[in-house]
């Protein structure tokens, strides 16, 4: 394991490409999907709160519900444990977090230099949710950084009922050169089918997957997933394939799953590895005011953490204007 020219250094911030796309009048996926989410959220006839999983503890505010899920200590005493399970909440989640999560993947993809000129991009996305990784790919294709002719995207997520409207809208972007499919099953179960199959991606993305597994999945199932994925990677994945692991910059003891990056990587053969983190402008730790440091052999803090989009018109969702994740990038030799 080590660093070579497989990764581009010095990737910084620019909003120039975004402004150029706007001037050309091109539709980019993230703006179309968020506009549809906003339209659904604004409809007064939503009845989701009447059947809320939080029952009598429902705050009647999707952003507060999200906070309760992300930070259970913020919820009233007696509030039941909960996953993402509400289409209305999904729309708010997408409007609030997509600019941050999409930008984090844009930075990662800009470092994966051997992907820039791939003719056919085949993406396997674990924990795809609202597909912020696909938003990033679409953005970089529109800006000319990724120059693929065809793309095949396969998203894995266990929550069909939560993301069904967003995925329906994303499927509208399909055409002869863009194929999008979703597989609604727990990744720890589906990995067996993936390992036995013949479809081979050249880009694999873990987008906020391991922090979710840490909260909701047994250690036995996580170990099975990693071992089966490693067998798939070591036997079938071709050289020059990239893996992007992007997640909250917290260890397991703080409700994150960053240690799983290194555990998974340690099972993979023939890898070139880079890892680092964004400065977290919202960090609350007295000892780590810019966010937690990221282990041995890390690149440390990335040079920039700003997102690539204009969020001025989305202020009612309180979106983040900066990135804050930890990342590991892996290339197969």
Protein model, in words:
This protein is about 35% helix and about 15% strand. The chain has about 325 residues and is of the alpha/beta class. A seven-stranded mixed sheet has the order 3-2-1-4-5-7-6, with helices on one face. Helix 5 links the parallel strand 1 and strand 2. The longest helix is centred in the first third of the chain and has 25 residues, at about 85-110. The chain starts with 15 loop residues before the first helix and ends with a strand. The model has no long low-confidence stretch (mean pLDDT about 90).
Sequence of secondary-structure elements: HHHHEHEHEHEHHEHEE
Number of helices: 10
Q: Note the main sheet.
A: 7 strands, mixed
- Spatial order of the strands in the main sheet? 3-2-1-4-5-7-6
What is the radius of gyration computed over CA atoms, rounded to a whole number of angstroms? 19 Å
């Amino acid at each position: 394991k080590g660093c070579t020219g497989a990764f581009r250094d010095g990737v910084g911030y620019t909003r120039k490409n975004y402004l150029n796309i706007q001037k050309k009048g091109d539709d980019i996926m993230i703006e179309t999907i968020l506009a549809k989410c906003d339209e659904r959220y604004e409809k007064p006839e939503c009845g989701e709160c009447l059947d809320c999983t939080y029952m009598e503890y429902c705050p009647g505010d999707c952003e507060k519900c999200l906070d309760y899920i992300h930070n259970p200590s913020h919820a009233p005493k007696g509030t039941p444990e909960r996953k993402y399970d509400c289409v209305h909440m999904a729309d708010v989640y997408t409007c609030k977090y997509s600019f941050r999560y999409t930008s984090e993947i844009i930075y990662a993809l800009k470092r994966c230099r051997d992907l820039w000129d791939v003719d056919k991009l085949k993406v396997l996305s674990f924990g795809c949710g609202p597909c912020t990784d696909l938003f990033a790919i679409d953005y970089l294709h529109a800006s000319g950084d990724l120059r693929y002719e065809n793309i095949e995207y396969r998203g894995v997520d266990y929550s069909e009922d939560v993301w069904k409207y967003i995925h329906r809208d994303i499927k509208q972007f399909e055409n002869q050169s863009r194929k999008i499919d979703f597989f609604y099953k727990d990744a720890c179960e589906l990995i067996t089918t993936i390992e036995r199959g013949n479809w081979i991606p050249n880009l694999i993305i873990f987008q906020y997957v391991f922090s979710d597994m840490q909260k909701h999945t047994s250690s036995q199932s996580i170990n099975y997933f990693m071992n089966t994925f490693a067998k798939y990677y070591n036997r079938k994945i071709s050289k020059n394939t990239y893996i992007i692991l992007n997640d909250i910059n917290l260890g397991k003891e703080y409700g994150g799953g960053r240690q799983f990056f290194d555990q998974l990587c340690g099972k993979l053969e023939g890898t070139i590895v880079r890892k680092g983190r964004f400065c977290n402008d919202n960090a609350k730790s007295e000892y780590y005011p810019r966010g937690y440091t990221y282990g041995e052999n890390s690149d440390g803090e990335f040079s920039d953490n700003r997102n690539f989009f204009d969020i001025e018109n989305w202020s009612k969702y309180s979106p983040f204007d900066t990135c804050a994740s930890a990342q590991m990038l892996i290339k197969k030799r």
